[in-house]
Amino acid sequence: MHTTQLRQADLNLLIVFAVMAEERNVSRAATRLGLTQPAMSRALQRARDMFRDDLLVRTRGTFQPTPLGQRLLRELEVILPRLDQLLSGTGFDPAREELTFKISATDYGSSMVCEPLCQKFLPEDSKITLNFVPRSDAEFDQLEHGQLDLVLRVDDGKAPSNLSSEFLFDEEFVCVMAQELPYSRRLTLKQYLSERHIGMSGAQSLPERSLALAGVKRNCAMMVPYFTAAISAVAGTNFVATVPRRIAESEAHRPGVKILRAPTEFVPFQYMMFWHPRMNTDAAHTWLRSAMKTVGQTIGTK
Q1: For every residue of the chain, which 3-state class applies, written as one string?
Q2: Which of 129, 201, 215, 235 is placed for a possible disulfide with 223 were both Cys, Cβ 3.0 to 4.6 Å?
Q3: Hey, what CATH class is 4-88 in?
Q4: What are the pLDDT tens digits along the chain (302 aa)?
Q5: Chain-centre distance of CA 93, in angstroms?
Q6: Does 173-267 match 4-88 at the fold level?
């Protein structure tokens, strides 16, 4: 971390400039800071000397920022409130702070959490942006290097032991198929294996792992990256899509399809959130995890 310029600077002058830029009047700015007008004028001059720029120029009885002054003010509007929070130990306020969180999730995870997050935690006055990105094999490395804030995924035992995690909700697999197929309620493993399937490519291969534990393998005629794509493809066919129950029920309005319980070999699984422990005490990240946990509890009751 390079701090040569910071060591030589009087950072109090940043507050002087910020207040002066807001008030555009020496007398009012001095009153806010508890200074005399001459002291305020001297401090403003020192700020100009520090940046080698006029920063604020008097025009028609007021002050207008120079281009550098405008850029500096925009930066200080973000930096100073955050520094003040760090020093005071106060919590994170999503209505005041402008911040983007980057979250890795499957299409299933996104479809489950995005709606309640928007309804409960992102009001109109919120300055928070939640940037959901597709899962990848590098997501845990991205957590390590600060390129992701949170990973939402199934607890499949692949997460590094140094990461922090928390349970969100339980889920189970069901089978979605055409109404014409001669099955009801639950498929046996023999019935399941007798059909052709639409499987999940990429990271969403939990059904394959469940079948491997049973020592069998299904016949997949098509591989797609999204559960919703698998569900939409089965109507009028002999194919079976094995998908999480909640996403199947959300798509139950589709004509010509039905939902059956999966073979007992498909055990329920847990959906989790993972993050790097360096974020454990960060106020903003704590707010994010709390919001996600509340959403998980809501989903878990459905």
Answers
A1: CCCHHHHCCCCHHHHHHHHHHHHCCHHHHHHHHCCCHHHHHHHHHHHHHHHCCCCEEEECCEEEECHHHHHHHHHHHHHHHHHHHHHHCCCCCCCCCCEEEEEEECHHHHHHHHHHHHHHHCCCCCCEEEEEEECCCCHHHHHHCCCCCEEEEECCCCCCCCCEEEEEEEECEEEEEECCCCCCCECCHHHHHHCEEEEECCCCCHHHHHHHHCCCCCEEEEEECCHHHHHHHCCCCCEEEEEEHHHHHHCCCCCCEEEEECCCCCCCEEEEEEECHHHCCCHHHHHHHHHHHHHHHHHHCC
A2: 201
A3: mainly alpha
A4: 455 565 667 888 888 998 898 888 899 889 888 899 999 999 999 999 999 999 999 888 788 999 999 999 888 877 876 777 666 555 677 777 788 999 999 888 998 999 999 988 887 777 889 999 988 889 999 998 888 999 999 888 889 999 999 999 999 999 999 999 999 899 999 999 999 999 987 655 788 888 998 999 999 999 998 888 899 999 999 999 999 999 999 887 888 899 999 999 998 999 999 999 888 878 889 999 999 999 999 998 77
A5: 16
A6: no
Please report, for the chain, the start and end positions of each structural domain, with discontinuous segments joined by +.
Answer: 4-88, 99-170+270-300, 173-267
Among candidate residues 151, 140, 147, 139, the one with its CA nearest the CA of residue 105 = 151
d(CA 31, CA 270): 58
The domain defined by 99-170+270-300 folds into D-Maltodextrin-Binding Protein; domain 2 (3.40.190)
173-267: in CATH 3.40.190.10: yes
pTM confidence score: 0.68
